[in-house]
Amino acid sequence: MGEQWGFYFDPDSCMGCNACAIACKNRHDTDAGHVDWRRVETVSEGEFPDYEETNVSLSCMHCEDAPCEEVCPTGAIEKRESDGIVTIDREKCIGCGYCGWACPYGAPQYGDDGLMQKCNLCLDKGPGSGADAPSKNEQQADGEALEPACVDECVGDALDAGPVGELLDKASQEAAERFEQNRTNVIIDSTGENSVTGMQGVRQATEDS
Questions:
Q1: What would be the CATH architecture of the domain defined by 5-181?
Q2: Region entry Disordered: which residue ranges (predicted)?
Q3: Beta bridge mates, 42
Q4: Contact 171, 8 (CB under 8 A)
Q5: Which of 28, 41, 50, 92 has a Cα at 20 to 30 A from 86?
Q6: Dihedral sign, Cα of residue 181, residue 104, residue 57, residue 201
């Protein structure tokens, strides 16, 4: 198995500007409006005067046990051993929507053609790209790895991407321990004592959206 790639996200540095979501749409030329490979949700906690809001930038979590892959009836979705990125082969997709129902984060999106598309950690550009792309590790070794557009355009440096081992070096001990308990390919960090962070907060944001 190759080194797994993922995202690092620090909600304390996210200002909710949506530059990440816009950059993603621009790079992949996704359908306007309803197709969002990345989006920013706001999680609220408490009541006035002890009320807080936290911005959470969401895309595919590239889950270790990806539920979308498990329910796909045609085998179009793959959790790649080479880099841990979950990809979709749109030649096999029949647009049944099972993956969208199974994903707790709302990552699978459906364009005007009815076929699934989602974040591929910028393995390549465009819907359906990435399924047959070389691993991110190979791309990096060859100097051809695209930095994800969301990371490239993040104003507050709240997002990063890379091999998970390198991202863990950047994360706080608390975030690293939380990641180990609930493994995806996303590390969520925070220093705020009262911030709503981690996968519980992300799931709540998705349920409220």
A1: 2-Layer Sandwich (3.30)
A2: 183-209
A3: 55
A4: yes
A5: 41
A6: negative
CA distance 1 to 42: 36
**Residue type for 162, please?**
G
Domain boundaries, the chain: 5-181
Residues 64-80 pLDDT 10s? 899 999 999 999 999 99
pLDDT in tens, 116-161: 999 999 999 988 788 889 999 999 999 999 999 999 999 999 999 9
Q: Of the candidates 96, 97, 79, which has an alpha carbon nearest to the alpha carbon of residue 88?
A: 79
The backbone torsions φ and ψ at residue 201, rounded to the nearest 5 degrees and listed phi first, read -65, -40
DSSP state of 180: H
Q: What is the DSSP string of 182-204?
A: S-SSEEE----TT---HHHHHHH
Token pair 């992300």 is found at 202
Instruction: Determine the residue type at 108.
Output: P
Q: What whole-number distance in Å separates Cα of residue 84 and Cα of residue 96?
A: 24
Whether 57 shows a pLDDT value over 90: the answer reads: yes
